Amino acid sequence: MNEQSRGSSPRTLTFEIFRFNPEDPESKPHTQIFELEEEPFMSLYIALNRIREQFDPSLQFDFTCRESICGACGMIVNGRPALGCKTLTNNLPEHITLFPLPVFKLVGDLSVDTGTWFRQMVERTEAWIHPDKDFDANATEEKMSDELSQAIYEGDRCIECGCCIAACGVANVDPEFLGAAGLNRVARFIVDPRDKRTDSEWFEIVAGEQGVFACFGMMACEDICPKDLPLLEVNAYLRRKMLASRFAASNS
């Protein structure tokens, strides 16, 4: 429990925020200091809105849902990727540094373009169901066990915030690396029985130079995932799956 929750005077927070507008040829990367009085239950989302309203309306950052669902407000908070709407200031020191997520194209200040990266990932992995028959709108829906539907849902819980990509040592060196978000997306379709791609087809997608075996195994992605996805289990599953597929192909 901090001093504010015990009823003492609120803290004065110092925000050191990265500023840069790549569209402005006169803009240079720098940090700017803002001071703000802490409020009860203040999140970084609330704090940034206060700063923009009271000090600088040009401050750029992204938000939509404010409920850790849209994934738009990812940023580097004191050196660690996090969601602005989920991060409460009372869990942070009085000096707070905010930087944009690396790997992704910078739009301005704390705003980055995660959409282009994720769209390219989806296109590279063809992350949609590949059936073996034409769609029939009048067909009876195929039944699925609760366990299987839960496994598919677990993969679908990713909100594509980009925090795992920003925390990944490989992705920071090789932007083409699928990263935890991409590999999780692939695993979701591998376990889906409606997707009829073969093991050899999946091998070409998952086991390439930017696939699962490019991972160093540091698993910073799982440490920072705001949805607590089991990314270590996903990584291990894909490695076992791809090795089994290769061994089966070589022995056939």
Mean pLDDT: 93
Q: What is the CATH domain class of the largest domain?
A: Mainly Alpha
How would you sum up the major sheet? Answer: 5 strands, mixed
Overall body shape: elongated
CATH superfamily assignment of the largest domain? Alpha-helical ferredoxin
State the total count of DSSP E strands.
7
Structural class, judged by helices and strands?
alpha+beta
CATH topology of the largest domain: Fumarate Reductase Iron-sulfur Protein, Chain B, domain 2
Q: What is the oligomeric state here?
A: single chain
Short structural summary:
Helices cover 36% and strands 14% of the residues. By secondary structure, it is an alpha+beta fold.
What key attributes describe this structure?
252 residues, alpha+beta, Ubiquitin-like (UB roll), 2 domains, 5-stranded mixed sheet, two-stranded antiparallel sheet, 9 helices, 36% helix, elongated
Describe this structure in words.
This protein has 252 residues and is an alpha+beta fold. The protein has 2 domains: 12-99, Ubiquitin-like (UB roll) (Roll); 114-251, Orthogonal Bundle (Fumarate Reductase Iron-sulfur Protein, Chain B, domain 2), CATH 1.10.1060. Helices cover 36% and strands 14% of the residues. The protein contains 9 helices and 7 strands; from the N terminus they run E-E-H-E-E-E-E-E-H-H-H-H-H-H-H-H. It has helices at residues 44-54, 114-125, 146-156, 163-167, 169-173, 179-190, 199-206, 220-224, 231-251; strands spanning 12-19, 30-37, 74-77, 80-83, 95-99, 105-108, 111-113. A 5-stranded mixed β-sheet has the order 2-1-5-3-4. It has a two-stranded antiparallel sheet with strand order 6-7. Strand 6 and strand 7 (111-113) form a beta hairpin. The longest helix is centred in the last third of the chain and has 21 residues, at 231-251.
